[in-house]
Specification:
It contains five helices and 47 strands. By secondary structure, it is mainly β. One of its GO terms (molecular function) is polygalacturonase activity.
Length: about 850
């Protein structure tokens, strides 16, 4: 029986006219802005270290020699039909959480004895009581450490020792710190979130150390914390204390956590003292304390968080690119403090769709020297801010430069508009009335966001473990071809059951077809991995995971999954999305990522050696014109180093994300890195929201490198590939991957781009003025209603080429990690001469 679920589409159609308003000139700053109460805070490494990557992994000393993913065991095709299920009814909202009750038979295939590796670890099985009286710290650490996991990896590799540390409902008294490692996920019962309670005699200064101490912060991947309460209210209010050290990077998820601290205390909720290369955190609440988030990271998307009864919501010690969306500041002295870092430590901050109530200053920032300054440092964009009982909205250099609500988009930084000077103009506080596509908005006029689903409203009998379906064996062992039975089970479950993929690697030799009505949940990033001749032809690329067919409408939601290749497969498109939802969020991806090479279980790790770029995959993500998807926390990584060994790989994935969608698409906290032709390619795309995107080019490109783009690929017009015809025949720093291309389209809203080029051929930058790359981004044609806020680059001579002409350069916009432009509005319909005519006390 085939089942489907449908919902009623409810979208508010709003539009605003393009005009420009101005704000009053500076007034005196209110008293009480001192940050002297902050404890000493030294971030590591300093800006002088330049944050260059120096990656290495933790090796698998004893790999499972019996597993060969390149010679998969044939699938077992049953001769009888799969038993049908009843369609979903109204969610029963049980008192117990399905994940706690379901069979846990996940494995780690590529280590010795991986078939018996214990992934799921309920802390109560290790002696934790959760009674609020007994010290549970040692039991929780034992759950983390079991199996030889430790700070040096113990030969289990970076990806070889995954662990879920599960907390049932209860209060877990903690007398000392807990140390976690890569590939570790803390998960609590979301129905009644468990509390980790700091004891009054706690022995250390931090409750949870989530960063693996063996690895640098920029390579702390595959870590998660969700559905918990962290409580320090019983600990001394006058002693500096931090609830969580979150010095981590991509493919990490922090969501649905309450940080509960004493009011008027010296406590901090979350800190990133050792830096990192982060992507996303969201749906967090901070109560009491001195600081909610103490941020020292390369870039971040922070979504839907509240800060209540504290001195400072977000203290930025260092960040190049931050997008803060859906914040709620209540009874806070300072909402966002961006003044504590040294010169050049703050690139850009965007504050979107937020509310401040009883706040002295919403944003505190440094002065940009003068209104005619060309620096891009400390760029601020505020888009849609509601205030009530607020003293100052923005204070810069000790002066209030903005008061009250922001009903459009307020800009403090360098701006480029049609009709303006070719070098851009410095906006010392200008509000633009901008257009938002109604397809992207919720009923309140904010950009739509969605909390990662837990499916806690369903019972365990409405969830199917894909490895436990009688008569249709699925192994996830990195050795067996699971294609047929995966497809059979997904087709049967559509609209009838949630499908749970226990930890493991699921080999597929043909397309996995995800029909409307599908909900998928993985575990420690369960991997679907392509193998076989179907995906081998670059001239006829094939899709590994296809979500819906063109024109289909329905539900398709995927959480906690990884998409990869088991072999060198130049014809593999890892993920294609065709489907749209009846309602916003019906089609969505949360904490789901891509990896090509760099890890055990893939022939790419060993085959892509030898000094020549190896065409390992065709395209990571394709959002087709009929699709509409909400994507949150996604990393599309072609490996620049080996996580599980020491193989010197030169891997070439042709393309990152090809986006042609038109029906409403949200990219919240995404990163695509090291893909050969481009990282993001928006082609005739419409109704797109991008909130913080991060990329790096392939380290092997540029002067002295083994190939110049488009090599080793031949451009494919059917996939709208760039040809690099703008470059000379032998111009290696021009023939490097585009970070982002925008080819036509309409209604594009981009906030916070962090595009970093570190190397030429894995060595020093050899380009003009010490740059590594000539051109970062390009616009082709005439996209309409396109708003690009806070474009940051590193090592790039030119930030943006607009229809063949260089528009934005590093020389004209120094700041951030190299350059930053606060507003690119040349395709927005807003004219600089209109700003001049309507502006009041605006200097250009």
């Amino acid at each position: 029986m085939r089942c489907q679920v449908s919902f009623i589409l409810s979208i508010r159609f709003l539009a605003s006219l393009s005009s420009v308003l101005s704000q009053d000139s500076a007034v005196s700053v209110p008293a009480g802005q001192s940050t002297a109460l902050y404890p000493a805070y030294t971030y590591i490494p300093s800006i002088d270290a330049d944050w260059k990557p120096h990656p290495h992994g933790l090796p698998i000393v004893q790999p499972n020699a019996t597993i060969d993913p390149l010679s998969p065991r044939p699938m077992n095709i049953p001769a009888f039909p799969l038993a049908s299920l009843s369609p979903f009814g109204p969610p029963p909202k049980p008192s117990t959480y399905w994940y706690e009750e379901i069979e846990h038979n996940g494995i780690s295939p590529f280590i010795t004895n991986g078939s018996s590796w214990k992934v799921y670890r309920n802390v109560k099985d290790y002696g934790a009581t959760g009674n609020g009286k007994t010290d549970d710290a040692a039991a929780i650490q034992a759950a983390i450490d079991e199996g030889g996991r430790g700070p040096d990896g113990n030969g289990l590799g970076t990806t070889g020792a995954p662990a879920i540390i599960y907390f049932p409902e209860g209060t877990y008294l903690m007398s000392r710190s807990v140390q976690s490692y890569v590939d570790t996920f803390f998960i609590g019962n979301p129905i009644n979130r468990p509390t980790l309670k700091v004891s009054s005699d706690f022995a250390h200064s931090t409750l949870l150390y989530m960063k693996d101490p063996t690895l640098g912060a920029t390579i702390n991947f595959y870590i998660g914390v969700k559905n918990l309460v962290l409580d320090s209210t019983d600990y001394s209010a006058n002693t500096s204390f931090t609830l969580m050290d979150w010095s981590v990077s991509q493919a990490t998820q922090l969501t649905n956590v309450l940080f509960k601290m004493p009011v008027s205390s010296q406590h901090t909720g979350l800190s990133t003292p050792e830096g990192g290369s982060g992507t996303y955190m969201g749906n967090l609440d901070f109560e009491g304390g001195l600081i909610g988030i103490n941020m020292n990271n390369q870039q971040y998307s922070i979504k839907d968080c509240s800060f209540t009864n504290m001195q400072t919501g977000i203290l930025i010690s260092h960040v190049f690119d931050m997008v803060i969306q859906g914040m709620r500041f209540l009874n806070v002295e300072i909402g966002v403090d961006a003044t504590t870092g040294g010169v050049g430590n703050i690139g850009s901050v965007a504050l979107i769709d937020s509310v401040a109530q009883n706040v002295q200053t919403v944003v505190l920032t440094k002065s940009q020297v003068t209104a005619n300054s060309t620096t891009g440092d400390d760029s601020i964009v505020i888009d849609n801010l509601q205030t009530n009982g607020v003293g100052s909205t923005v204070v810069a250099g000790g002066k209030t430069i903005l008061k009250g609500d922001v009903t459009g988009t307020w800009v403090y930084g360098n701006a480029y508009l049609k009709g303006g000077p070719v070098t851009g103009a410095h906006d010392a506080g200008v509000t633009y009335q901008t257009f938002r596509s109604p397809l992207l908005l919720d009923d309140g006029g904010n950009y739509f966001t969605m909390t990662p689903p837990t499916y806690q409203e369903y019972t365990v009998d409405q969830v199917v473990n894909i490895k436990s379906v009688k008569g249709f064996p699925v192994f996830g062992d990195g050795q067996t071809d699971d294609t047929h039975n995966i497809n059979a089970i997904l087709a049967r479950n559509a609209g009838c059951a949630i499908t749970f993929f226990p930890a493991g690697t699921y080999l597929v030799s043909d397309t996995v077809r995800i029909p409307p009505g599908t909900r998928i949940v993985g575990e420690t990033l369960s991997a679907i991995s392509a193998v076989g001749s179907k995906f081998a032809n670059a001239d006829a690329p094939q899709v590994m995971v296809q979500v819906g067919l063109p024109g289909q409408v329905g539900v398709a939601q995927i959480s906690d999954m990884l998409f990869t290749v088991a072999d060198v497969l130049p014809g593999c498109i890892l993920l294609q999305v065709n489907i749209a939802g009846f309602s916003q969020g019906d089609v969505g991806f949360w904490n789901s990522h891509f990896r090509v090479g760099g890890a055990a279980g893939s022939g790419v790790e060993t085959k892509c050696q030898g000094g020549v770029p190896c065409k390992a995959a065709f395209l990571l993500l394709h959002l087709t014109p009929t699709s509409s998807a909400y994507i949150e926390d996604m990393w599309g990584w072609t490996a620049d180093h080996d996580l599980d060994g020491d193989y010197d790989q030169i891997i070439s994935t042709g393309r990152g994300a090809l986006i042609e969608s038109t029906r409403g698409t949200w990219l919240v906290g995404t990163a695509f890195e090291h893909n050969t032709l481009y990282q993001y390619n928006l082609v005739s795309a419409e109704n797109i929201f991008i909130g913080m995107q991060q990329s790096e080019t392939p380290y092997w490109q540029g002067t002295g490198g083994p190939a110049q783009a488009p090599a080793p690929w031949t451009p494919n017009a059917g996939f709208f590939d760039p040809t690099f015809s703008n470059c000379g025949v032998d111009d290696p720093n021009c023939r490097m991957a585009w970070y982002q291309r925008i080819v036509g389209g309409a209604n594009l809203n981009i906030y916070g781009s962090g595009f970093w080029t570190f190397f030429n051929d894995n060595g020093d930058c050899m380009g003009v003025n010490g740059t590594c790359q000539n051109n970062a981004c390009e616009i082709v044609g005439s996209p309409t209603e396109t708003y690009w806020w806070n474009l940051n680059t590193r090592g790039c001579l030119n930030l943006l080429v607009d229809d063949g002409a260089v528009l934005e350069t590093q020389n004209n916009n120094p700041g951030s990690w190299g350059a930053v432009v606060a507003a690119t509005l040349t395709h927005s319909g807003i004219l600089r001469r209109l700003v001049r005519r309507l502006g009041k006390k605006i200097l250009f």
